[in-house]
């Protein structure tokens, strides 16, 4: 039995849907980089082989080059991030978060909104590419 080490997943807790995505693409990366299918398989043997090899290279390039280049506006070092502050709720042992000044941190809230839109777009892109990978999984052998 071979252990799958997911090199691109940061340490710490991750929801299973994210682990599934990263595991599937780690299998593709391991296949391309360790099994060297470009040297062991005649990808020009049939039209199907050519199509699958093109798809495999496209997915590999997306996972290793394009996806890691994603940039969230929240990662901007110049962005002023509001402090996380709490205040005690009167007559209680509980605390509540103090809402930051939205005018003072307007750029942060714009970046937060843009980040949310990008996250949705990226999720859909991840989903499409995971489906593409599943479609060619029968060719991941040497």
Provide an overview of this structure.
The chain contains 4 helices and 2 strands. By secondary structure, the chain is mainly α. The protein has one domain. Strands 1-2 form a two-stranded antiparallel sheet. A hairpin with a 6-residue loop joins strand 1 (about 85-90) and strand 2 (about 95-100). The radius of gyration is 22 Å and the shape is elongated.
In a nutshell, what does this entry contain?
The protein is mainly α.
Highlighted features:
mainly alpha; 6% strand; 142 residues; two-stranded antiparallel sheet
Count structural domains: 1
Give the helix level as a range of percent.
Answer: 40-55%
Sheet bearing the most strands, described?
2 strands, antiparallel
Rg from alpha-carbon coordinates: 22 Å
**How many beta strands in the DSSP annotation?**
2
Topology as a string of helices (H) and strands (E): HHHEEH
Spatial order of the strands in the main sheet? 1-2
Number of helices: 4
Termini separation: 17 Å
Low-confidence stretches: none
What overall geometry do the principal axes of the alpha carbons give?
elongated
- The chain-level mean pLDDT equals 96
Helix-and-strand structural type: mainly alpha
> Which percent range describes the beta-strand content?
5-15%
List the helices and strands and how they pair.
Blueprint: H1 16-34, H2 37-40, H3 47-66, E1 85-88, E2 95-98, H4 106-135
Antiparallel strand pairs: 1-2
Helix pairs in contact: 1-3, 1-4
């Amino acid at each position: 039995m071979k252990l799958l080490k997911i090199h691109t997943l940061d340490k710490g807790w991750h929801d299973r849907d994210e682990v599934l995505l990263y595991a599937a693409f780690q299998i593709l990366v391991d296949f391309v980089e360790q099994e060297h299918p470009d040297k062991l398989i005649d990808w020009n043997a049939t039209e199907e082989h050519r199509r699958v090899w093109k798809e495999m290279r496209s997915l590999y390039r997306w996972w290793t080059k394009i996806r890691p280049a994603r940039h969230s506006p929240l990662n901007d070092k110049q962005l002023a991030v509001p402090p996380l502050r709490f205040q005690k709720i009167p007559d209680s042992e509980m605390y509540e978060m103090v809402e930051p000044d939205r005018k003072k941190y307007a750029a942060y809230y714009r970046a937060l909104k843009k980040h949310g839109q990008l996250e949705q777009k990226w999720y859909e892109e991840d989903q499409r590419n995971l489906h593409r990978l599943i479609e060619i999984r029968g060719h991941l052998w040497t």
